[in-house]
Design brief:
6 strands; 2 domains; Arc Repressor Mutant, subunit A; 10 helices; 47% helix; Rossmann fold; alpha/beta; 219 residues
Length: 219
């Protein structure tokens, strides 16, 4: 991939977003096409701008970062997604890579790590911050990524829309507000909410909040 690389920055903290934009335009010499602060707005931004690369924070309002990755990676196979996260949880990294991210970089790492990861994914390779997996390598020379668990967990049965509703309920949004945010009817929200609660054996909002934390949607 040659020429000027177009990038969408997804980060809800303005100071961090400013830093990423400077890195992209000054250090990498690429172009920032858009800045997005809410997980629900990422897909539309990609439709409008068609970036080659996305720099994404996982802890987003509106929609979990892993679900954002999955949604965009399924739609745009050539989109390279670099996760820039505060979490060094290897499970969170595994989820991101399984969903379609090409790189996982810690916010606490030197800027050179993010620069290296960005160049690497544009070349079609993958990158995992050594601080996450201790720099382990497999015999083929690639960064080690744990294999997914074979056990079917309840949360794996949730649809993307049910996961969106789960996160928004945990954030304190009412059904009416969720309907507006997702551009669906209140009745549809209620259906997704009931299905989600049934699959997770959740009986109240407290249970939903607990599941959101368990799934690392609330960072």
């Amino acid at each position: 991939m040659t020429g000027c690389i177009g990038v969408v920055v997804v980060e809800d903290h303005e100071l961090l977003a400013d830093g990423l934009c400077l890195l992209i335009e000054q250090d990498l010499g690429w172009r920032v096409l858009a800045r997005v602060v809410n997980g629900l707005d990422v897909y539309r931004a990609c439709v409008v701008h068609r970036p080659a690369l996305m720099m994404l924070d996982l802890g987003l309002p509106g929609m979990d970062g892993v679900d954002v990755i999955r949604q965009c990676a399924q739609r745009w196979r050539d989109l390279r997604i670099v996760v820039n996260s505060a979490s060094d949880d290897s499970e969170r990294a595994r989820q991101s890579l399984e969903a379609g991210a090409a790189a996982y970089v810690l916010k606490s790492s030197p800027r050179t790590t993010l620069i290296h990861a960005s160049y690497q994914v544009i070349r079609g390779e993958r990158f995992v911050d050594p601080a996450v997996f201790g720099g382990m390598h497999d015999p083929g020379g690639a960064r080690h990524v744990p294999r997914p668990c074979a056990v079917e967990m309840p949360e794996r049965l949730l649809t993307l829309r049910e996961r969106q509703v789960l996160k928004l309920v945990a954030e304190g949004q009412r059904n009416r507000d969720i309907a507006q945010l997702l551009s669906i009817s209140v009745k549809t929200v209620e259906t997704h909410r009931l299905n989600m609660m049934r699959k997770l054996d959740a009986h109240n909002v407290a249970d939903i909040v607990n599941w959101a934390h368990r799934l690392r949607m609330m960072l």
